[in-house]
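From the shared-data thread, chain only:
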Amino acid sequence: MEEFTELIKKFKIDVKRFEYEQKKLAKLVIEKDYMDFSEVRLVAGCDTSTIGKEVIGSIVVLSEDFEVIEEKFSLKRATFPYIPSFLAYRELPVLIDAFHKLENKPDVFFINGHGTLHPRGCGLASHFGIAVDAATIGIAKELLVGEVKDSKIFLNGKQKGYALITKEGSKPIYISVGNKVKLSSAVELTKKFIKQPHKLPEPLTLAHKYANKIKEELVR
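Structure, as tokens:
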């Protein structure tokens, strides 16, 4: 944690201001289904990668049959350091830019990051969902907060996430509501779009590969 304290000082980050903003945004999160998700036709995965001080934001859109419909990316210089629980302030701008390049509107987005399973109830998946007014699901490999009991993750006495083992012998992924979807639907959609032998939902797996592909092309 000491290294993050130094970054906060170096970048002169007003932590209280950002914490207040996240708490305020958390109240805008919609934890209900905005549509019948059994009728999902297009899904997307959002991920990022870095090249030095540049951040690559990638979005891959798939059909319900796992066919890639389109891929878009954006590249922006990072103006905020990597600090746990403040990921959105580093990655949100580039993901929004990539979003505006899409020719198809996905029914739901899988985001590499937490949603409401966050110290202040508003992780990257919620930031993104609110910013673009879309249904989003947070998928993370590590827990920031919460207590796991029989796969359910509780925060302040309320279930805010679900730990799902998607690959034999692997640690679980942590699912949470981003925006405009209820937790049970987020879990079912995640299960639906897992494709063995991958650990993450296929839209995220492909978004990750696409981001790395762009990175390789840019550093040649």
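The chain has one domain: 2-218.
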